Amino acid sequence: MRIGNVWVGLTVSMLFVLGGVLPRANAGEDAWEAHRFLEGEWTGEGSGKPGEGKGRFSFAFELQGKVLVRRNHSEYPASAGRPAITHDDLMLVYRGDGGKKIKAIYFDSEDHVIHYTATVSEDKRTITYVSDKVTAAPRYRLSYTKGKDQKVSIKFEIAPPGKPDAFKTYLEGSADRKDRPKINANK
């Protein structure tokens, strides 16, 4: 019993210590300002290498606003001798590198795991996630561009192994906000 109490005490102490050193946003700073236009539920359609398809996705803040979670479901009907395809993925967007950079990790139903770093355009209308360079592996770029009337354009690009900056469009499409909430025009 005494050893168990020591472990509990050490664990609680470590939580207090880590709570004091983990990165936090400055008071009044909104680390997620540029990402807020993505929040909500979306439906869309697009085309690309797997063909034309439809899908839905959502972006929601979790863990008291510290993590942005994207869930995606896409369906591509059978065509040209190819069976129908269903694709599901999950992406966790978080503040990394001392809270200065936005990072993401992506998982999908095809066993892909992708690590991304996000950048935001100067006008804050486009968020681009670019995967890390990995020797002998493709590189990925996923972009969301804020449109008018609560629409968003999406582009997914792939660069072949050995050519990490030679991106070519794999999929692109557009989506409409499903719930159409009113958004403050100043944001």
Strand content: over 45%
Helix coverage percent of residues? 10-25%
> Main beta sheet: strand number and arrangement?
10 strands, antiparallel, barrel
Evaluate the radius of gyration.
Answer: 20 Å
Give, in spatial order, the strands making up the sheet with the most strands: 1-2-3-4-5-6-7-8-9-10
Q: Report, as a whole number of angstroms, the end-to-end distance.
A: 55 Å
3D shape: globular
Characterization of the model:
The protein is mainly beta. It has one domain (24-177): Lipocalin (Beta Barrel), CATH 2.40.128. The chain is built from 1 helix and 10 strands, in the order αββββββββββ. Strands 1-2-3-4-5-6-7-8-9-10 form a 10-stranded antiparallel beta barrel. It is globular, with a radius of gyration of 20 Å. 17% of the residues are buried. Mean pLDDT is 82; it is low at 4-28 and 183-187.
Set down the secondary structure blueprint.
Elements: H1 2-21, E1 40-48, E2 53-62, E3 67-76, E4 85-96, E5 101-108, E6 113-120, E7 126-131, E8 139-146, E9 151-159, E10 168-177
Antiparallel strand pairs: 1-2, 1-10, 2-3, 3-4, 4-5, 5-6, 6-7, 7-8, 8-9, 9-10
Based on the model shown, name its key terms.
single chain, 187 residues, mainly beta, Lipocalin, ten-stranded antiparallel barrel, 11% helix, disordered C terminus
Give a summary of the structure in a few sentences.
The chain has one domain (24-177): Lipocalin (Beta Barrel), CATH 2.40.128.
